[in-house]
Amino acid sequence: MRKLAVMVAVSMVISLAGCGSSESDGGKGSSSSGTPQTETQVKAQAEAQAEDDGPAPKTTGEFPEYHWTAAMSVAENTINYMMVEKFAELLDERSGGRITVDIYPGGQLGNTTEFTEAVIGGSIDIGTGMTTDLVDFIPSYAVFDMPNLFADVEQMRAVLSGGLVSALDEYNNQGGIEMLGFSDAGFRQLTSNKPVHQLADLSGQKIRVMTNQYHIAYWNALGAAATPMQFTEVFMGLSQGTIDGEENPYMNIVGNNMQEVQKYVIETNHIGHIITFFMNYNLYQGLPEDVRVLVDECAEEATAYANSKADESIAEYKKTCEDAGCEIIVLDDKVMGELKEKASVVYDMVRENTGDELVDQLLAAINEAE
């Protein structure tokens, strides 16, 4: 009965939201009127609801019963699913079965835009996507669309577990979500049917990108012909030669069999594939203190678990690509430096659209993590 009720509630949200343009690795957000919600609108909605709910109660003795719903657009073999599944297992175990989470992968409760909007609105409790998915709801997340930010995965994880998270909380809460944690699937890489050893090799290559202004600007700045395309159309586009290449983390490359229709994987490490894990803000704030503590503990352990699984899976996915006949190309420091230099146009765009404060905080956090 609960699952039926959830599906009915979500279908109502989706019908109001209209047709979203989201896909499993990106999308556009819209309000129920079909236009993007501003942070101010969402904050006002969240504050009004919080006033109605009153202060969070305190629990003594055993935990109250909660039955939550978690949504994602990706499949069960992804880091997102592993993370939420571990979170649900830990909550169930440590609450004595009184706090449970029903997980709906594969877009069962709508695409990324639709379920994110539903989490903000409160008809879905928990969501997981990636930072790019949040940009239309919380524009400040565009800072993570600045290419070639991080030297390696360890530096990226240090930043995402440091003081920058507190700065992000203000934007999250204004946007109507409580960020439970971040995981990742490593970096996004370039795949192509043409080898790339230097910047000039990208000239004119038709590279499929997400429908994201920052990603489009980056690949065009590198001399490629950035080609926005729905994720579901990419495999066919590569097979038919409509596009020369695409960019994704190894998780998505192998998960969608790109290695079968591509000859090269070029390790550009251009953008961290940062996975978000969030809850409705009012739900979280209304929980008893001990339940919030439990949620935080389980989320922290679940994201750490997801990171360990990501490291294992990336090595396995690389081997899968090699076994399929793909050549993996590692770019030298000179070329990586040129990529970062060309990325400056995107940094300027992000500063113009979001302001300097968070950009400077992120860059400072990266310097501290070196």
From TrEMBL:
Keywords: Signal, Transport. One of its GO terms (cellular component) is outer membrane-bounded periplasmic space. Residues 20-63 are annotated as: Disordered. The keyword Transcription regulation does not apply. The keyword Nucleus does not apply. GO terms for biological process: transmembrane transport. Residues 1-17 form the signal peptide. Residues 20-34 have a biased composition (Low complexity). Belongs to the bacterial solute-binding protein 7 family. This is C4-dicarboxylate transporter protein/chemotaxis domain-containing protein.
